[in-house]
Every structure is written in C-alpha cells, then in structure tokens.
Model the fold of this input.
Amino acid sequence: MPATHEEIQQFSRFASQRVQQGDQPPSLEECLRQWRAEQERDATVADLLAGHQDFEEGRTQPLDEAFEDVRQKLGWTK
Done:
C-alpha cells in the first residue's frame, strides 16, 4: 500500500525527534521499525478504548450470537 502524504509527514517528525534525542541516531531502518511499532501500538490502544466504550454503553451481545453472526457473514453453516 502506498504511503500517504500525512504518513510521510508523521514519520519525518518521528525520525527527526529520534535523531535529536540520542547521541547515536538510529539507522533509517531501525527508525522505521520503531515508528511502525508505535503506530501499531497506538491503533491497538484506540481499538481497546473503543471496545471498552461499547461495553460501557451496553453495545454487547452474547458470544454464541456473535459467533453465529460471523458464521453467517462468512457463509459457514453449523
């Protein structure tokens, strides 16, 4: 998937901060690995917070019903 302009700007800011923070700046590859890990962590935290908010607001369903919904969407039968 091609990078968006916003992603390139975010990475550039991230890389610049890493270079300014250390005596030994990370390699470009290491910086990219760190940035991707941070992006993944941030997305995971956002997903967990959204799920918790759904739970708090009563947007839940029993597990057996959820599995049945998934089976129907995938065209699987019992």
